[in-house]
Design a protein that fits this description.
Two copies of one chain form a homodimer. Chain A is α/β, with parallel strands linked by helices. Chain A is built from eleven helices and eleven strands.
Chain lengths: 337, 337
């Protein structure tokens, strides 16, 4: 599966900026792929890029219209279907991060068939995976893990990819969630895979590669989250990371959507090493990514410094500042290639 | 979902006894539910129960025909479809442990619809689960875990249910695999659930219950199996067991279908306690189930004794002998009700 870029980002009548979070993530990390946005009357979101019709997008070279928005009712309204059918008729593929599959709508399915266009439902996986086998693959892998869900594992992986490339590493982001798939044009939403194939899907996401190549794998969930730890462990085993980075949000008190307290960074490091050893005996922590969004700059720098000192590991906020301390550590331990 | 019994066990033209392993498991554990077997010409399996036609089964009071057999080609042959349609027309439901869904066959789907009968595909789950929440539920739970896949977790759970009931406990087997679902008439094949919902499905399998009630939950995989550990962990978190029993096959050298060595019983106990604490801080090991099938009786008793001494925990082979040492421990720690 490969979603072709450049993209037209469809925002529909998104209520506000938050409803267009997926699209905003694509603009953040792949601005060059995002030629325009398509907004309907009443849209409360703005990505700060050119407004375009489907025809204008086609003329500008767009290959795929991406529905990167949460719709108010939870279903796909008729006036969205009209635009999707227009896009298919104009020769664009359509990719969607909605729960509902595009092909469930007869007009969409028929238009895709008639115009020989592809529909991508990135929350679902139509790929057939094999069961994981735990066999060591060539090339290097870094996985982002977390003290909780939604602490910045995707943004950390993307920042590490960007900064490693900036320093001459052969590094590649590997998406395991729907927004990540739209940002990189491929990958799989691993929480949508049948449970038997979690590790197998993770092995598929970061296949055998050349010596010196780094896959930077987007983590999911947390080993300490009672809803999702199974996904996290299957992803850890299948990714067989050489290095991992722990993502942490220092102001959060309880884990997302549950009552459990946030585990310590230390216990996440220990559990990840203990369990990760099964498929990579040399697994090691390469640093801490502190999500300092809730802190002012002075507090942020203080928290990062204290974390690094306490753990004796590099720490940084790779999105707000840069990922250099972590990449220094990777270079120190693994060398440049 | 509730598969109604009694059953007619359909064996088709199963090559040999091994191909009818699922049906044999049902006869082993629910002999009273199994009124007859239906064998086609060339069938090499025999469950040792009465041969019956569909009409005879209906007259005897059978409610469901169970396809408890692996078919040679991997697909459902036409002459099986004929019998399935006959069963539906006679007013039986049909339950299947095959990979292919029954409803994929037009004649089967149409017959089920025409005769208002239910089709159960126990390898698939049509239930909608919610995401797990980790909240403690009332009642007690025991989970069987293993040093590997296929070491006797289902049979251990069933033997513990049987022997606890024999001693007056209010105990109930909870199925998490296809054969277990056919043996108990309900449950879910947890490895067939979407990854996001593993823990939620496990919570659904052993819901809130009365004080003193024990759910005996069938375990899956192993925390040390690189293919399936994610499923195992989600099941552990969702089951929130008060007690667990480690199942072990002492002659096995490497884990099933992979090259990894079998972990020690000690490391399985430690990992299960460490990780299980997240949803039940009082989790404890209630004993070891040694699968002695490959040993003669003297070796079997010696191995069990050595295991119990080494670990300071009750050990037994609950299928070959009985589960008493484990139930004594449960009674000692948790009392009778």
């Amino acid at each position: 599966m490969q979603i072709e870029n450049p993209y037209l980002l469809f925002l529909g009548d998104a209520r506000d900026q938050l409803a267009a979070k997926t699209a905003a993530g694509i603009v953040d990390w792949r601005p060059g792929w995002c030629l325009g946005q398509l907004r309907l009357p009443g849209c409360g979101a703005d990505l700060g890029i050119d407004d375009m019709t489907v025809a204008e997008a086609k003329a500008a070279g767009v290959r795929t219209m991406v529905i990167g928005v949460v719709n108010p009712g939870g279903t796909l309204p008729d006036h969205w279907v009209d635009v999707i059918v227009q896009a298919l008729a104009a020769g664009l593929d359509v990719a969607s991060g909605l729960h509902t599959r595009l092909a469930e709508f007869d007009r969409v399915r028929e238009a895709a068939h008639a115009h020989q266009r592809q529909l991508f439902d990135v929350r679902h996986s139509d790929e057939t995976f094999r069961v994981g086998n735990g066999v060591k693959r060539a090339g290097k892998r870094l996985l982002t893990v977390g003290t909780d869900c939604s602490v910045g594992k995707k943004y950390t992986a993307l920042a590490i990819e960007r900064d490693m490339r900036g320093r001459g590493f052969n590094a590649e982001f590997r998406a395991t969630g729907q927004t990540g798939v739209l940002i990189s044009g491929r990958g799989v939403a691993i929480d949508a895979v049948i449970a038997d194939f979690i590790a197998g899907a993770a092995e598929w996401i970061s296949p055998d590669n050349t010596h010196g190549h780094w896959d930077i794998v987007e983590g999911q969930g947390s080993l300490f989250h009672p809803s999702f730890a199974g996904v996290t462990l299957g992803l850890l085993h299948g990714s067989q990371p050489d290095a991992f980075v722990v993502c942490h949000e220092p102001t959060r008190q309880t884990m997302r959507n549950v009552m459990n307290p946030i585990p310590s960074i230390e216990s996440v490091i220990n559990a990840t090493v203990e369990l990760g050893r099964l498929t990579n005996p040399n697994i090691r922590c390469a640093g801490i990514s502190v999500n300092t969004a809730a802190l002012d700059e002075r507090e942020a720098r203080q928290d990062i410094e204290r974390t690094a000192e306490r753990l004796g590991l590099p720490a940084c906020d790779p999105y707000r500042f840069d990922a250099d301390p972590i990449i220094d550590e990777i270079e120190r331990v693994f060398g440049r290639s």
